[in-house]
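Chain A, query sequence.
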Amino acid sequence: MNYTQALQKMKEAARLAGEQIMEIYETGFSVNYKEDHSPVTAADLASNRIILDHLKTHFPDVPFLSEETADDLSRLEHDYCFIIDPIDGTKEFVNKNGEFTINIALSFRHEVVAGVIYAPAMGELFYAVKGEGSFMEKDGQITRLRVSDRKDKLVLAQSRSHLTKEQEALYEKYKDRIGRVQTLGSSLKGCYLAKGDIDAFYRFGMGTKEYDIAAMVLIVEEAGGIVRQLDNTKFTFNRKDIYNRKGYYMLNRIENLFDYSEFYPENTTIQQP
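Chain A, predicted structure.
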């Protein structure tokens, strides 16, 4: 498969879905709740339909994993898989703060090779192909992304809707190294790390799944950043168990890694990065 051509279709799908999402965003909508008590709206379902229709038209033989479609485990038998979150940050969508995204990734043999994150309320589209760098499109301009070189007065991100006591305690422990903490929703944390606005983010617990982070991991890494699970191992994708059970961190550079071992489960060994 030509990854650059696949990326183009992924970008098209994200933009098409974004148009529909913004129509619903601006006109009002009801909120329902799934079995896990997470919110879902008509925008999530419309985005899912548009993305899948577009990708299936061009890649009929590639299976997919999507938050809003029942999982078909036959995807595990394939080298390729699209990994899709039609709206990452539905809580941000419901609260109308603009910090929600559309995430589309393409994995090959458990590694992401192309990724798109679109923030339609902000008009920002982030993307990457493995080995070719990370980029942002906004207002017709394309910018190559690069993580920051900061080693002190670090800018850390914290989740707007999923703040944990472990994250708060870690940031308090290292407050002398932190210049400020920026609150962000959805996968924008990774996008803003990729473009150098923030320097690190730590996520404790298993609240995220593959489709929350797949595109983000590639965009951060192609911008020169580091993404690891909290045991310092790399992520794999198109797994049977889609939960990210170990948590993760993102960094601009490895020298800025905080010692989080006291906040990590005692029965899990932390390997050296």
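The mean pLDDT is 94. Residues 3-27 form the longest helix (25 residues).
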